[in-house]
Amino acid sequence: MPKILVLYGTTNGHTARIARTVAETLERSGARVETIDAARGNPPHPALFDGVVVAASIHVGGYQRSVRRWLRRHAAVLNGMPTLFLSVCLAVLERKPEVDRELERIVDKLVAKTGWRPDAWKPIAGALPYTKYGWLTRLVMRRIAEKQHGDTDTTRDFEYTDWSDLRETARAFAARVGDQGMENPPEVTPLAGTTAPSSL
């Protein structure tokens, strides 16, 4: 039974929900899972696990500092084990080549700053919790959503995460981690929607 760490960074709580959904799916797939908010306490060493999933959300062109700090500290160990990065943002809703390039640039920046090269990464659509924002953040996010032809009713919250796809991604990662202990593991199919590390 593989042991998997799900480490996350969250600003308004939606990435925490994504991390919990991933953890629940991994457990149903037969893994033992520990779910940790990188900003709370002292996250464990990755060497204690057989695989690691990292989920973080993009704000002002970067990810949470607590996540970056942990990745930088443990990059050498992480680069020698199965890992998956879930990049949570709203920009993926636009589905434009220039948006894809910008997302890749942001992940490139994370790789350069931390030294961690995830086996695979996947963009995950987040949410617009307008009712949880302060008035200034609400105004800024409404303008961003308007540019992206998104939802602008600030009296409501909007959620865009494809939960079925997220669960399938988690199941595929669980299978990859489980195969690591097999003498002759089957060929692994790359996760849908991910970029190989060499192209980061």
Q: How would you describe this structure to a colleague?
A:
The protein has 200 residues and is an alpha/beta fold. It contains 5 helices and 7 strands, in the order βαββαβαββαβα. It has helices at residues 14-28, 65-78, 97-114, 135-147, 163-179; strands at 3-8, 32-37, 51-57, 83-89, 120-125, 127-129, 157-159. The strands form 2 sheets. A 5-stranded parallel beta sheet has the order 2-1-3-4-5, with helices on one face. Strands 6-7 form a two-stranded antiparallel ribbon. β4 (83-89), α3 (97-114) and β5 form a beta-alpha-beta unit. α1 (14-28) packs across α5. The two termini are 31 Å apart. The relative contact order is 0.18.
Summarize the structure.
This protein has 200 residues and is of the alpha/beta class. The chain has helices at 14-28, 65-78, 97-114, 135-147, 163-179; strands spanning 3-8, 32-37, 51-57, 83-89, 120-125, 127-129, 157-159. The two termini are 31 Å apart.
